[in-house]
Specification:
By secondary structure, the protein is an all-alpha fold. The chain has one domain. Helix content is about 80%, strand content about 0%. Helix 2 runs parallel beside helix 4 and helix 3 packs antiparallel against helix 4. It starts with a helix and ends with a helix.
Length: about 210
């Protein structure tokens, strides 16, 4: 079944071109479960065959991810926020909890958004709390683009070097996920260390 799916994606992307990459990644980045691991590698393979341009594949996938993230972000910001404030108490979401989320994203929204775009499952959901907390739109866009660009680039080059071999694509995509998780853990540890050091300096100077 996976072989048939990858063949369908190769044919679809080949027929629709960069628009196909854009639309599929917009779906992947919103609430529609289209795995990026089987969308971008076929496009990378087509780039290796000379049928697509690698730079445009990465750009299309990254912009598609941003548009899909926008769908969640704006829905949460302008629809979810009023509903949660009005009805959240019925599911134990108090205004105090909501304020804690807002405070967290004001302080750590950039690192959370960036890392969230790199992690499986989280990348579909991270736009929702960012929108609910009213995270700055430009910062949300910047860190979403950065995280998405890294992930799309990794998958595109996997497809470029491996080709149509779905078993190897899954193997190296899985390894890429593990590497990204390890990288994210190191990044979070570094961020926490820097944040605590900055707070300690502020206390000393104060």
């Amino acid at each position: 079944m996976l072989h048939e799916l990858i063949n369908w994606l190769v044919n679809t992307i080949g027929a629709m071109g960069y628009l196909g990459v854009f639309l599929l990644m917009a779906m992947e980045s919103s609430v529609i479960p289209v795995p990026s691991e089987v969308v971008i590698p076929p496009a990378g393979y087509l780039a290796q065959q000379g049928k697509m341009h690698m730079g445009l594949v990465i750009m299309s996938g990254t912009l598609g991810s941003l548009v899909g993230a926008y769908a969640n972000y704006f829905a949460a910001r302008y629809l979810g926020r009023p509903l949660l404030l009005k009805y959240g108490r019925y599911v134990w979401i108090t205004e105090e909890h909501f304020e804690q989320v807002e405070t967290y994203f004001r302080r750590h929204g950039e690192i959370s958004t960036f890392i969230g775009r790199l992690l499986p499952v989280v990348r579909h959901l991270i736009s929702l709390p960012a929108g609910l907390a009213g995270m700055n739109h430009l910062r949300f866009s910047l860190y979403t683009l950065l995280g998405s660009a890294i992930w799309v680039t990794v998958l595109a080059w996997i497809g470029y070097f491996i080709g149509e071999n779905e078993e190897l694509i899954l193997k190296y995509s899985h390894q890429a996920v593990l590497d990204v998780i390890a990288f994210s853990a190191l990044l979070v540890a570094g961020y926490i260390w820097w944040h605590r050091r900055k707070a300690a300096r502020s206390e000393v100077s104060g």
